[in-house]
């Protein structure tokens, strides 16, 4: 092998000591020297390269042009990077390509002019650049296609970016607003205050919107305003800060909110009216009724000797109808009080409550009421849950038609609910009446036979449903009926089980 | 009533209700004179008139024109001369709020007027029995 010398030094020695991949060629482009990094980079053992044309290290498509360029270079040799502005690739022995940077240096040796090429594998840099380009493209896509408006400003409030959604929302193009103070998007008095706000934040770090977000008012180019949600994020870019505002036009939501508020208000006033209606009923309907009752009572007492039997019967009917109407008014009041007049919710032991209700109702000796299994403790308003049990039991007693009346109360757990049942062996109810019996003022027996206001079951239904439960009936004519109702098992009472002692 | 010569003040605007009370009192042999006044304002004027005989008890309706029962209580229970006169509310209202307001203003009792006259007599009998036994400051 020829010993090439450069200013007295062996070129081989020079290349061996370099960490970069280096290759030296002669004027004809023949490879004269390579160093170990070249072997590693291209995958050739050095002896397979020496003497070969340099172009074997280039992909096929570059080879012809390279020959021409090489000739040009030797005509005007100087140190430079190769192929400025175009992407260069190396070709490995295994046929794979990789991007490279190449710098060229002419070497004047005793044997003539040679060229040394330093080759850098820039695969990783290219990948990083690619990744960056991709990420930027993604960011752009997000920025451009976001449904929300995105506005970025610098520390002094100057708009830097303004996405298409923001353009649509405010009516400005990005070009119109970039470089302007963001306060032009705000109506008075916010626009005047914004510079001071931003300065205050930068000085004190006290946040009012940044990092929080709130509802503000936006100002369009045409001077109209609209309600919007604004969220501001902060980004540090080296020394500087950038603020990114995300805005959403909430006009429709606002309208919906206003409509909801209005409905709510109407509902409240309707409820208010119902309140006073109940009050009026209790006072104004009852006062004349009481007068009728008293006067009828006095007439039948004071003129007892002047009435014949028919007259006396009429007076008796008159007084009984006064009582019935009194019962109806009381029923309306009771019914309207459910859900309107709130009592404190407490833990109610139903075993004790059922016993109290039975004592209160004092069933006749031919009717037995039994509790099949121990009942739970529930969270409820005591009066309401008592009304439920009392009405169901008093109905079972009132309509009992068997010489040996049997009423059974049972309870079981079903999912998140208790399922209660009150079963009797009374007359039973026809299927077609199952809905009617839960309606207000609906009774199945003529009132003169069984005195009833028709409020009881409607009241029970209202209470059960107020607690999120359900009520229904199963019945067989002549055999009896079972009224079922469910009641939520709340966390506070979920651990009371059927096994609990009364 | 413990003291039989002092009047019973009946604050009531309904004529039949007034008759009912009178009749019931007669039936249970209460002999105190009954002074009927139609609203709270009239009653205050009566109580503050030095010529008026001070009552042993006030039977008060709540629902009245001009000055209703609660408004009347607000005045009378803040008057040092009048606040010890026992006031028994006699009303149709079973509204919780009326009961709360009445007892907050220190009423001596709250009776719902029954529609049934016989029951009404029993209510009056109970009021009379209680105020026959109860001691009162002079």
Largest sheet of chain B: 5 strands, parallel
**Radius of gyration of chain B from the CA trace?**
14 Å
In terms of per-residue confidence, which ranges of chain B show pLDDT below 50 for 5 or more consecutive residues? none
Topology-level CATH name of chain B: Rossmann fold
Biggest interface, residues from each chain: A-B, 21 and 19 residues
Q: Main beta sheet of chain A: strand number and arrangement?
A: 6 strands, antiparallel
CATH uppermost class of the largest domain in chain A: Alpha Beta
Count up the domains of chain B: 1
**Based on the structure, what is the oligomeric state of the protein chains?**
heterodimer
Question: Which overall shape of chain B is indicated by the principal axes computed on the Cα atoms?
Answer: globular
CATH architecture of the largest domain in chain A: 2-Layer Sandwich
CATH superfamily of the largest domain in chain A: Histidine kinase-like ATPase, C-terminal domain
Strand adjacency order, main sheet of chain B: 2-1-3-4-5
Distance between the termini of chain B: 14 Å
CATH class of chain B: Alpha Beta
Structure described in brief:
The complex is a heterodimer of chains A (502) and B (138). Chain A has twelve helices and 20 strands.
What does this protein look like?
The complex is a heterodimer of chains A (502) and B (138). Chain A has 502 residues and is of the alpha+beta class. Chain A folds into 4 domains: 5-121, PAS domain (Beta-Lactamase, 2-Layer Sandwich); 142-249, PAS domain (Beta-Lactamase, 2-Layer Sandwich), CATH 3.30.450; 254-337; 346-488, Heat Shock Protein 90 (2-Layer Sandwich). Chain A has helices at 11-16, 36-42, 60-75, 123-145, 164-170, 174-177, 190-204, 251-302, 309-337, 350-361, 382-398, 456-466, and strands spanning 5-6, 9-10, 21-25, 31-34, 80-81, 88-91, 97-109, 112-121, 149-153, 159-162, 214-219, 225-237, 240-249, 346-349, 367-371, 377-380, 405-414, 417-424, 471-476, 480-488. Chain A is elongated. The relative contact order of chain A is 0.05. Chain B is of the alpha/beta class and 138 residues long. Chain B contains 5 helices and 5 strands; from the N terminus they run E-H-E-H-E-H-E-H-E-H. Chain B has helices at 15-27, 40-48, 69-76, 96-104, 117-133; strands at residues 8-11, 34-37, 57-60, 87-91, 109-112. Chain B has a 5-stranded parallel β-sheet with strand order 2-1-3-4-5, sandwiched between helices. In chain B, helix 1 crosses helix 5 (117-133) and helix 2 (40-48) runs parallel beside helix 3. The longest helix of chain B has 17 residues, at 117-133. The two termini of chain B are 14 Å apart. The chains are: A alpha+beta (502), B alpha/beta (138). The interface between A and B is medium-sized, with 21 and 19 residues.
């Amino acid at each position: 092998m020829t010993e090439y010398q450069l200013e007295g030094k062996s070129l081989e020695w020079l290349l061996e000591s370099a960490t970069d991949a280096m290759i030296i060629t002669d004027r004809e482009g023949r490879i004269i020297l390579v160093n170990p990094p070249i072997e590693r980079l291209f995958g050739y053992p050095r002896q397979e390269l020496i003497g070969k044309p340099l172009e074997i290290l280039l992909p096929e498509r570059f080879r012809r042009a390279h020959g021409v360029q090489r000739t040009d270079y030797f005509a005007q040799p100087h140190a430079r990077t190769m192929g400025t502005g175009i992407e260069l690739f190396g070709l490995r022995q295994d046929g794979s390509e990789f991007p490279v940077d190449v710098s060229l240096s002419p070497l004047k040796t005793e044997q003539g002019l040679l060229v040394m090429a330093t080759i850098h594998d820039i695969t990783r840099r290219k990948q990083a650049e690619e990744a960056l380009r991709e990420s930027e493209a993604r960011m752009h896509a997000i920025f451009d296609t976001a449904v929300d408006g995105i506005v970025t400003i610098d520390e002094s409030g100057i708009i830097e970016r303004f996405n298409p959604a923001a353009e649509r929302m405010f009516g400005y193009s990005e070009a119109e607003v970039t470089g302007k103070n963001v306060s032009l998007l705000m109506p008075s008095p916010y626009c005047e205050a914004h510079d001071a706000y931003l300065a205050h934040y930068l000085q004190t770090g006290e946040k009012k919107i940044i990092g929080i977000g709130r509802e503000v008012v936006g100002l369009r180019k045409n001077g109209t305003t609209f309600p919007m949600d604004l969220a501001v994020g902060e980004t540090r870019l080296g020394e500087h800060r950038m603020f990114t505002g995300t805005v959403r036009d909430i006009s429709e939501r606002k309208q919906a909110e206003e409509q909801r508020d209005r409905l709510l208000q109407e509902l409240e006033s309707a409820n208010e009216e119902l309140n006073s209606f109940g009050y009026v009923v209790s006072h104004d309907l009852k006062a004349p009724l009481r007068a009728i009752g008293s006067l009828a009572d006095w007439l039948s007492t004071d003129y007892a000797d002047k009435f014949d039997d028919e007259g006396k019967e009429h007076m008796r009917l008159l007084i009984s109808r006064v009582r019935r109407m009194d019962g109806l008014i009381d029923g309306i009041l009771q019914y309207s009080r459910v859900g309107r007049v709130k009592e404190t919710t407490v833990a109610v032991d139903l075993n004790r409550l059922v016993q109290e209700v039975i004592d209160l109702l004092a069933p006749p000796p031919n009717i037995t009421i039994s509790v099949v299994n121990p009942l739970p403790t529930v969270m409820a308003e005591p009066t309401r849950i008592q009304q439920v049990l009392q009405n169901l039991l008093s109905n079972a007693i009132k309509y009992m038609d068997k010489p040996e009346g049997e009423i059974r109360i049972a309870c079981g757990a079903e999912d998140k609910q208790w399922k209660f049942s009150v079963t009797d062996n009374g007359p039973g109810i026809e299927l077609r009446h199952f809905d009617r019996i839960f309606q207000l003022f609906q009774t199945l027996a003529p009132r003169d036979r069984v005195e009833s206001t028709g409020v009881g079951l409607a009241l029970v239904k209202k209470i059960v449903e107020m607690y999120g439960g359900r009520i229904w009936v199963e019945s067989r004519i002549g055999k009896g009926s079972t009224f079922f109702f469910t009641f939520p098992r709340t966390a506070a009472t979920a651990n009371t089980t059927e096994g609990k002692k009364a | 009533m413990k003291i039989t010569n002092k009047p019973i003040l009946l604050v009531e605007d309904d004529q039949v209700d007034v008759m009912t009370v009178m009749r019931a009192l007669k039936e249970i042999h209460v002999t105190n004179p009954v002074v009927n006044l139609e609203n709270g304002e009239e009653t205050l004027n009566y109580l503050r008139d030095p010529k008026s005989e001070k009552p042993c008890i006030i039977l008060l309706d709540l629902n009245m024109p001009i000055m209703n029962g609660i408004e009347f209580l607000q005045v009378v229970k803040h008057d040092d001369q009048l606040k010890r006169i026992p006031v028994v509310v006699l009303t149709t209202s079973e509204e919780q709020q009326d009961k709360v307001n009445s007892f907050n203003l220190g009423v001596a009792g709250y009776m719902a007027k029954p529609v049934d006259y016989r029951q009404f007599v029993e209510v009056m009998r109970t009021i009379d029995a209680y105020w026959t036994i109860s001691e009162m400051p002079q």
